[in-house]
Structure formats: C-alpha cells, structure tokens
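Lab channel / #folding
Pinned by the channel admin:
"Please post every new chain as: sequence first, then the structure tokens as a reply. Keep commentary short and put observations after the output so the thread stays searchable."

First post following the new format, from NK:
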Amino acid sequence: MRWVVFAGALALAALVGACASVTRGMTNQVQINSNPPEATAKTSMGHVCTTPCTLQFNRKDEFSVLISKPGYHTAEIAVTTRVAGAGAAGFAGNVLVGGVVGMGVDAVSGATLEHYPNPVTATLVPLKKGEQPTVIKVTPPLPEPKPEEVDPKN
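Reply from TO:
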C-alpha cells in the first residue's frame, strides 16, 4: 500500500512540479498601448513599433519605453521585473524535479520573472499652442497584491 501512495505522489510531483524555464519560457511578450493610438514606441533595448503593438523581451530585461506622437508630449515609462506567482511555483517545482541545476537555470534565465507594467499604457498630453514638447516620466501604479499575498487576518 505504501508503494502505491509513494508512486502516486511521485507521479503527481512529476506532472505538477517543473522548473520555470520549462513551464514559462525565458522570454515574455509586453504589450504597448497609447491614447491616442498610432504613436511611436521606442525602447531602450532598441525596439521600435507603432502602438498598439507587442514586443518580445527576455524575462530578466528591464528597460524604458518612450512613446511619442507629433502634437503631444513624449511619455517615458520604466518597465521593471518582479517575481511572478507562476514563476515562483515553477521555481519551487525544482525542489521536486529539477534540483539544484533547475534552480540555477531559472535564476540565470530570469524564468521566474514577469515584466511590470504589462501592458505598458500611456495617455499622451497634447501640446498647448506655442509649447515645446517635453518628456513626461510616467510612474505606473503599484501592482495590486495577489490573493495569495494578502493576509486574511489583517
């Protein structure tokens, strides 16, 4: 009987536990939007697109996005990384399946990370008559805590 329970637990661990680099990949798509649309988005990583657009980055890349359009001030938004819930679960799966090697791959590749904000959204401010365009740094709001991060006792 113990053998059946052990084999079942091992099979479940193999199905559920896997390193984040396998389950999530090492790249992430970031959406970029603007109001009004059809603005030029340039990243500090060298990507250029017209909004709305989606670009792909390595999960550990942190960068900024300049969103500009004639007749409007330019918006600059910093995109950072944070540990994703699914990434942490995948990393924890290494304890069951991937071991130290899997943990090392996840740490080096950034597979446990996600980009924030995603989507990147900017509302461009129109220029007033005679006003020179400037760069307005936009600070995204702090992310809402995930349900598993909220302590129900407080």
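NK: Strands lie at 27-35, 40-43, 48-50, 53-58, 63-68, 74-83, 113-116, 120-123, 135-138.
TO: also worth noting, The longest helix spans residues 85-109.
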